[in-house]
Amino acid sequence: MNNFVYDVPVKVYFGENQLSNLGNELIKYGKKVLLTYGGGSIKKIGLYDKIVNELEKFGLELFELSGIEPNPRIESVREGAKICKEQNIDVLLAVGGGSTIDATKYIAAGACVDFDPWDFFSKWAPIEKALPIVTILTLSAAGSEMDSGGVISNLETKDKIGRLSPYLLPKVSFLDPTLTYTVSPYQTACGSVDMMAHIMEVYFNIEKDFYMLDCFMEGMMKTIIKYTPIAMKEPENYEARANLMWTSSWAINGFVNGGKKQEWSCHPMEHELSAIYDITHGLGLALLIPRWLEYCLDETTVSKYYQFGVNVFDIDKNLEQMEVAKESIKRLSKFFFNTLGLDSTFTKVGIKQEDFEIMAQKACSNGTIKGFKTLNKEDIIKIFEMCL
Ligand code: NZQ
Ligand code: ZN
């Protein structure tokens, strides 16, 4: 293990009927609450009314920002920050998936500065403060409910950029699996690929000595593989939704990192796909991951694939390492494209070769991605070509 600091002070209320604690938690931070949400799913599932009711019980004053988009835009962040400043908001309540929570994090930070919140991304302006954030998660995927990250899109500049700051950690997150019953099979699938990716970006690593964390990650990957098809077929299966929801948080809350130094590979590549084509994050990852694995497979990396194949997909451990490695990539592709039914090529989702150059350039803006295998622009273009 390496040296590391693990400090994730997010209070989690997990399970059904926990919203009775919402008012109690919010009022600790003040009376003026800005409720942020997306395109309206929270109204369809009756959650909006429940929230209003809980806030009324505590005499909290409600302000709203709705319409936060998937791949959230900087415009929503600007608008939210403006409301916070004009109304002297005390606390933000983000209700939704990763997009709503991510946008809310930058609203919370944007409310505390005099400059345009896009400067957090374009100029790496310091994040030194943020308003407190409480979240109610409605989709198991990004893990924003328990991490310090957030990713914002700018359609004008065709950028989608993520950043971390401890100030962006939610104070409290409510994780009620029943709130995910209405998530469509497609979004359930994409969410699970995203969680899988968060784990694989760390798991596929050449650093040694992480036995305990490897076992934990293998357990989470098996959980995703077991429960996603169940949740897609039986949307109201509590066991499946609950297992996926808790995995969403633990896949990316920092616990599995163990101080590993390597950068993530598929996420920077995927953010460029979403930036130009506005595709669902999990779909972009499903397209990239099997090809990235194929590209990085050689004699120096094969043992990790072997471990993955044997421990996650139960492939016969007596087979040759390389055989197990190739079979593990096949099984993963089958899981993404057959079991989950996601589109399997760039061509099917309309991603064109003419954009490979610019997307590859931006994905390795520091020259290379120092991941499982170091990737330069040419490597990334080759991986994109494998996805066609
Ligand atoms: O907008 P509404 O109406 O709420 O509908 C949403 C949206 O259309 C819908 N949905 C959410 N909960 C629902 C529901 N529909 C029915 N029933 C419910 N209970 O699902 C759609 C997708 O929502 P979104 O929030 O975009 O999905 P997700 O949670 O996958 O978030 C994706 C965003 O998170 C970023 C991604 O880049 C992407 O922008 N990420 C954030 C990370 C982080 N904070 O650390 C890390 C991730 O790697 C990721 O990059
Ligand atoms: Zn992700």
Explain what this protein looks like in three dimensions:
- By secondary structure, the chain is α/β, with parallel strands linked by helices.
- 49% of the residues lie in helices and 12% in strands.
- The chain is built from 16 helices and 10 strands.
- The strands form 3 sheets. It has a 6-stranded parallel beta sheet, sandwiched between helices.
- Helix 7 runs parallel beside helix 11 and helix 11 runs antiparallel to helix 13.
- It binds 5,6-dihydroxy-NADP and zinc ion.
- The site of zinc ion has 6 residues, from helix 7.
* Architecture per CATH nomenclature, i.e. the level-2 architecture of the largest domain: Up-down Bundle
Beta percentage is 5-15%
Biggest β-sheet: strands ordered side by side in the sheet: 1-8-5-4-2-3
Detail the poorly predicted runs. none
For the termini, the CA-CA separation is: 38 Å
Give a count of the beta strands, DSSP E runs of length 2 or more.
10
The CATH class of the largest domain turns out to be Mainly Alpha
Helix/sheet category: alpha/beta
Assign a percent range to the helix content.
Answer: 40-55%
Number of domains: 2
The gist of it:
By secondary structure, this protein is an alpha/beta fold. It is built from 16 helices and ten strands. The longest helix is centred in the middle third of the chain and has 23 residues, at 211-233.
